[in-house]
Amino acid sequence: MKRMRVRILGGVLALAVALMLFVVWKTRPQTKYAAGFSEAGFSAIQPGETEADVMQRLGKPLTTYSEETVEEWCFGTGTAEPSQGQHWIGRVLGWPSEAACLYLKDGVVVSVRSSGGSRLAQLQGKTADEVAREMGKPKYIVPAGMKVTLRYSEPRQPTDSYEAFLVILDGERVVRGTKHFVYLD
Fold first, then answer.
1. CATH number, domain at 180?
2. Rounded CA separation 179/185 (Å)
3. Residue 179 sits in which domain range?
4. What pLDDT, on the 0 to 100 scale, is given for residue 25?
């Protein structure tokens, strides 16, 4: 009787491990990389390099896209204060932050990011002057500007999980940072 229980338990355990390995195998990233791309080259990219430097090291990206960013005002005790010369990049690179931020376009709050405050949500639609009177001086302000992203990887199929490698440039096409993450679909 005891041997039977041990065998059943062993079989269940083996089945669970096999199922777990199958799930891991099926959900592993399926990534297509740009010709000439290498993780070592990507890791060597430093802020301040030019787009030409990046292209020499990694080759032509799979895609390039640009977007205009809005002005960001952040309040609170977060750790997301940008270094000198880094504008919107903190948000792009996912700096850890507990800061509550307002996003302004043409001097009006268009969206809010806050981990737990409805106070900021009430500022939606208010002008920069109204916000300054109500909230005081922000911890930091990230000016609006152009952001250019060079994408060196993409999913093999539209529904695949993949490993993303992005190089972030400012409007002058100078590297402000890189971003590497796994996108799970």
1. 3.30.1450.10
2. 18
3. 28-67+146-185
4. 64
**3-state DSSP helix/strand/coil percent for the chain, to nearest 5?**
30, 35, 35
DSSP type of residue 174: B
> Which DSSP helix (H) or strand (E) runs through 121?
helix 118-121
CA neighbours within 13 Å on the CB side: how many for 167? 32
pTM: predicted TM-score of the whole model, two decimal places = 0.58
What tokens appear for 33 in the block?
Answer: 């990389």
Size (the chain), residues: 185
* Residue at 72: amino acid letter: E
- What is the number of domains present in the chain? 2
Q: How far is CA 172 from CA 57, 73, 87, 107, 147, in A?
A: 19, 23, 13, 24, 9
CA angle 92/156/58 to nearest 5° reads 55
Q: Would you state the pLDDT for residue 14?
A: 84
Q: How far is residue 61 CA from its own chain's centroid?
A: 18
Q: Specify whether the CB–CB gap between 72 and 103 falls below 8 A.
A: yes
Q: Tell me the two tokens of residue 36.
A: 């000439």
- 93-133 confidence digits (pLDDT tens): 444 444 678 899 999 999 887 755 557 788 889 999 998 89
Contact 164, 149 (CB under 8 A): no
E-strand spans in the chain? 31-33, 63-69, 71-75, 100-105, 108-113, 140-142, 145-151, 153-155, 162-170, 175-183
Q: Which two tokens stand for residue 174?
A: 């100078």
